[in-house]
Design brief:
- By secondary structure, the protein is of the alpha+beta class.
- 16% of the residues lie in helices and 39% in strands.
- The longest helix has 17 residues.
- The chain folds into 3 domains: 98 residues, membrane protein fhac (Ubiquitin-like (UB roll), Roll); 242 residues, membrane protein fhac (Ubiquitin-like (UB roll), Roll); 264 residues, membrane protein fhac: a member of the omp85/tpsb transporter family (Porin).
- The termini are far apart.
- It has 13 helices and 31 strands.
- Strands 12-13-14-15-16-17-18-19-20-21-22-25-26-29-30-31 form a 16-stranded antiparallel beta barrel. A 4-stranded mixed β-sheet has the order 2-1-4-3, covered by helices on one side.
Length: 791
């Protein structure tokens, strides 16, 4: 038999090879799994007819069957553009019919039906065209909304609780609005001091009469106060620091907003990766990893006599009833029974009367709960040390650079909540840029090393100490610079209004300019008040008052940010060479709007001026005011909206007064692309001006004149642009393009005179545009690839 075995194997192999000409041959371990219902037919088209109440794209978005991407399938590896083939699966298409009906039912169209469907294969047998025809029917509207269970002795009323909530009589009933209203009722009760409050409800839908009757039962429980605060999860951080960040006190009226604020305050300590602050009866659902902590929480709940039922609605379920569809989001869809049984169902053992009776019994039991609510703070400490390595690319129309990055952080450094961060970058820069039409003026290595230390709760709970030491080597149009600097600052949130913050800092920096364009040190440029120095020390005191009402720092969609900053430069300790006062008021606003789906109207304005109060020092070039670039007027290059040197190479040298406005409607284009984040787009209008003189006030050292506020609007320049960005875990990755609408060829700020000494005067005679070095720099457009928004 041993001699025959090889022959049998060879014969079996030959049979399998021959069979590949037909159906194929494979062992069980080699057989490829075939999805039930799958075919080789590419989906050429998915057509939905009869869709009127909604967009066809919205209905299709929930379907498993998708149109084949065509040529994009040849590039499946390419992000955003690439895609996989879409093949027809008959089982998925069958289930899609139910998905279509569920889409309509969840939006109030309970009588919607699929009246016909077709599947047509192409003549070559490689593709298929799919079609479904929908009869949407009439929408179901809300006939009545009832609220029961409110304590008549309280100040709450059904009208107040339902005010400005999405569920209203007469409008189309949707499951989303129903659930939102139900949850909001419970939330409003808790905000009124009822920590144990819940709101249960049922929506009885009659598809034939196109009406829905909505019923809510309010279980407020007792009015409550904060109890003892229990902290879990500490390992290396001392508990006293967490206690200092907690402002709520036992005995105070219960307020869930205070819990949210406490959670933010603990996060702000900077040493925790996870923070939850919850009343004890809600903290039961939080997973506790340590057995000892789990037992502590269970003991706390038992001592407080907190009920174990997380959802009091679980005892009140409504099954399918004659004449009604009892909408319960926790149970499968139910079919409407006969109309003649409607009245009996409502009065029956599981109808409204039974629901009321069960809910009232539960409310009576819960009314005996302890009015003092324990608070559970659950913490997970962040990693003490972290290191990140990466690369960066900055692309602007006037400057580009590439860089490598090495950053490391130490949390709770040497204990006491201290934090130490070190950010390092090294690379190469081109200014005005490799892709600019201008002749390359400057290029070279760039370096940045930034060491930051912070001490929260410095001396007292709300004050933070911050130290920052950095050294930079940078390349700009007209010069390169070495710049070591030190900053020492204290910031403090205002008690009772944590959104308002005051900051005081001392700054010292040394500047060493090299590769300097000759026109910057030419004595003829003193008419601009530059008095350029290649080496000097700059000392300043700076005060800032910041009101931050934004909902998100990186990508705000509502709220506002207002700041006032005042900087005084002088010789304080180490021989500062300049004496001036610089002030700026800025404001940003973000207004959600219902236009075009999800959208936000973003607004920004800035007004700043510098007062030269020194005898002969002037204002250094890096402290003067500019606009242009990704954080200014985007149709100008970085710092190119500026005054310029009147001779030699055109170098932007800033001004003493700046005014900026920006309007940017933002619209979400694609939700959650590749499950990473939303894709947004925007159009924007920027306007800005840079002026020579000081605003309103004159000083003895000022040789640039003064301005009135009314002088600024006529000098504004305007730019129009568009941008698109993708919200990613590292922030919005954004691409912008902007074009200057204003004519700069007749603006004396951007033209050179045949006589340089006449620059900025009425006696100036412009050189021809094609010979003007300033006009060569003002390209009239700008583009930017960046992480983060302009504002």
């Amino acid at each position: 038999m041993a001699r025959i075995q090889p022959l049998r194997v060879a014969l079996l192999g030959a049979i399998c090879w021959l069979s590949t000409l037909g159906t194929g041959c494979a062992t069980d371990s080699q057989a490829e799994y075939i999805v039930p219902g799958a075919t080789h037919l590419r989906v050429e088209q998915v057509e939905l007819r009869g869709v009127e109440a909604f967009s066809e794209g919205d209905v299709k978005s929930g379907l498993a069957t998708r149109k084949d991407p065509g040529w994009r399938a040849a590039l499946p590896w390419l992000p955003i553009i690439g895609a996989d083939r879409s093949y027809y699966n008959e089982f998925s298409w069958d289930r899609d019919q139910e998905r279509i009906l569920n889409f309509y039912r969840s939006r109030g169209y309970f009588s919607a039906q699929i009246v016909s469907r077709s599947e047509v294969e192409s003549a070559d047998g490689n593709s298929i065209r799919l079609r479904a025809t929908i009869d949407e029917g009439e929408p179901t509207r809300i006939a009545s909304i009832e609220v029961e269970g409110l304590d008549p002795t309280s100040n709450l009323s059904a009208r107040d609780l339902l005010n400005e909530l999405p569920l209203k009589e007469g409008q189309v009933f949707t499951e989303k609005d129903y659930l939102t209203t139900r949850d909001a009722l419970g939330r409003r009760l808790r905000e009124a001091g009822y920590a144990y409050a819940t709101a249960s409800g049922r929506a009885f839908v009659d598809p034939e009469d196109h009406r829905a009757d909505v019923f809510f039962f309010i279980d407020a429980g007792p009015i409550t106060r904060f109890g003892e605060v229990h902290i879990f999860g500490l390992e290396n951080v001392e508990e006293r620091f967490v206690r200092q960040a907690i402002t709520l006190k036992p005995g105070e009226r219960y307020d869930p907003q205070r819990l949210n604020q406490t959670q933010e305050d603990i996060y702000d300590l900077g040493v925790f990766g996870l923070v939850t602050v919850l009343p004890a009866h809600e903290a039961r659902e939080v997973t506790l990893e340590e057995q000892e902590e789990r037992q502590r929480l269970e003991n706390l709940l038992e001592e407080s006599d907190i009920p174990s039922e997380a959802d009091p609605e679980a005892d009140v379920q409504i099954p399918p009833q004659p004449g009604l569809d009892a909408l319960n989001p926790d149970t499968p869809d139910q079919q409407p029974p006969d109309d003649e049984d409607t009245e009996e169902a409502l009065a029956g053992p599981l109808g409204i009367s039974s629901l009321l009776e069960s809910a009232q019994l539960e409310a009576e039991r819960r009314s005996r709960l302890d009015p003092e609510v324990p608070v559970v703070v659950r913490l997970k400490e962040a990693k003490e040390y972290s290191v990140r390595v990466g690369a960066g690319l900055a692309v602007e129309s006037t400057r580009q650079d590439v860089r490598g990055l090495l950053n490391w952080s130490a949390r709770n450094f040497l204990g006491g909540l201290r934090r130490l961060d070190h950010f390092n970058a090294a690379g190469y820069a081109w200014a005005p840029g490799l892709i600019s039409n201008d002749e390359l003026v400057n290029r070279g290595a760039i370096l940045s090393s930034d060491l930051r230390f912070s001490q929260p709760q410095f001396l007292e709970r709300l004050t933070n100490l911050r130290l920052r030491a950095q050294i930079d080597r940078d390349v700009r149009e007209g010069f390169s610079v070495w710049n070591p600097a030190l900053r020492v600052s204290l910031d403090r949130a205002v008690p009772f209004f944590r959104r308002l913050r005051f900051e005081l800092s001392y700054n010292i920096a040394y500047y060493n300019y090299f590769n300097v364009e000759e026109s910057l040190v030419d004595v003829s440029t003193t008419t601009l008040g530059l008095d350029f120095q290649t080496k000097f020390v700059l000392e300043s005191l700076e005060q800032s008052l910041i009101l931050d009402l934004r909902n998100d720092v990186l990508d705000p969609t509502r709220g506002a940010l207002v700041s006032l900053n005042v900087q005084q430069a002088n010789d304080f300790i180490f021989g500062g060479k300049f004496d001036f006062v610089k002030s700026e008021l800025s404001a940003e606003g973000y207004i959600p709007t219902p236009l075009l789906g999800r959208s936000v109207l973003a607004l920004r304005s800035r007004l700043g001026t510098i007062y030269d109060v020194g005898e002969e020092t002037g204002v250094p070039i890096q402290s003067r005011l500019y606009s242009g670039g990704g954080d200014g007027m985007r149709s100008f290059g970085r710092q190119r909206l500026s005054l310029y040197t009147p001779t030699g190479e055109a170098v932007p040298v800033g001004g003493l007064t700046r005014l900026e406005f920006s309007v940017e409607p933002r619209v979400r284009l694609v939700p959650n692309l590749f499950s990473i984040g939303d894709v947004w787009g925007a159009i924007f209008l920027d306007s800005a001006t840079i002026m020579r003189g000081q605003l309103y006030l004159d000083t003895a050292a000022n040789d640039q004149g003064t301005l009135q506020l009314a002088d600024l609007p006529p000098s504004l320049l305007y730019g129009l642009g568009a941008g698109v960005w993708w919200n990613t875990p590292v922030g919005p990755v954004r691409l912008d393009f902007a074009y200057t609408l204003s004519d700069t060829t007749e603006d004396p700020r951007f033209r050179r005179c045949t006589d340089p000494s006449a620059q900025g005067t009425s006696e100036c005679v412009f050189v021809p545009v094609d010979q003007d070095a300033i006009q060569d720099l003002i390209e009239g457009y700008g583009f930017y690839l960046s992480i983060g928004h302009s504002f």
